[in-house]
Amino acid sequence: MAKQELSIGALGKLTGTKVETIRFYEKIGILPAPARTAGNYRSYGHDHVRRLTFVRRVRDLGFPLETVRAMLDLADQPDRPCGEVDALVLGQLNEVERKIADLERLRDELDRLAHQCRRGGRVAECRIIEALSPHHEDGHCCP
Amino acid sequence: MAKQELSIGALGKLTGTKVETIRFYEKIGILPAPARTAGNYRSYGHDHVRRLTFVRRVRDLGFPLETVRAMLDLADQPDRPCGEVDALVLGQLNEVERKIADLERLRDELDRLAHQCRRGGRVAECRIIEALSPHHEDGHCCP
DNA sequence: ATGGACCCTGGAGTTACTACAGGGTCAAGA
DNA sequence: TCTTGACCCTGTAGTAACTCCAGGGTCCAT
Ligand SMILES: [Zn+2]
Ligand SMILES: [Zn+2]
Ligand SMILES: [Zn+2]
Ligand SMILES: [Zn+2]
User: Considering every ligand atom, which ligand is closest to the CA of B116?
Assistant: First the structure.
């Protein structure tokens, strides 16, 4: 492969992306289809490296692919106002903060649950199972 | 529907589960197939209410369905030692703590990113886009 | 010329649901 | 009695973002 031209495997190594993922991004239009060699191998250049690196960075920040697409669009139109970019980042920040709060509540519940078990007993006496089981008697639920 | 017998919709309301989800749980063997009425409607009793409530509680704690299945198995065999239950809970606790740590790192990065944008500019000068873009020059990546 | 590392396409599998489409059932009101 | 609307049935396909596989081709070195 010529200088400045990368095979799909080389591009993957360079960007920390699996080969299948690169082909997937091409199929859904996140990455443009590259040139092909005589043997029908994909052949990537600098623009592809730049674009895929950008995509991976944004993905690693937890943005969905739809947002990646929006950011690529914005990055390609330098004259648009950049408030939209800011809004995307703030939206993701909120999302992440919401998820953290959810998981912290979950962690507290699991922690309480974990302390219920005095190990060594049988399932029949397990407080964890008990705590998870509904105390449901006849007539409690069904009118 | 007779006393003590619930339609799928009533069971859903009682347990906070969508009708489709209940049918899905039946298909994958999480819930046993209930009796049917003359008109071929599913007809649920107390055991179903108890079991589905248990499933939902475990799911709400973030356990995957595979673990739900394991817990149901354990709950059905009261003579097994309960260390296994404890292990499942501790495993999930670790998992949740790992996710929280990941998200906190993400939040910090997003927070830094959000402060880069002095709003009102054009995308061309946006520091967010710049921060996400690789500084990739010719010869930098390709041997 | 032959072996192994790499590449190709197309399709299926993953998780835990959710959303139809195209029908049947049931109870209540006019 | 008829009809209307809420509910139920099955079966299939769609979601997010990949990941894996089968069954083949290409390339390079020995
Ligand atoms: Zn226990
Ligand atoms: Zn009941
Ligand atoms: Zn900006
Ligand atoms: Zn390069």
Answer: 3
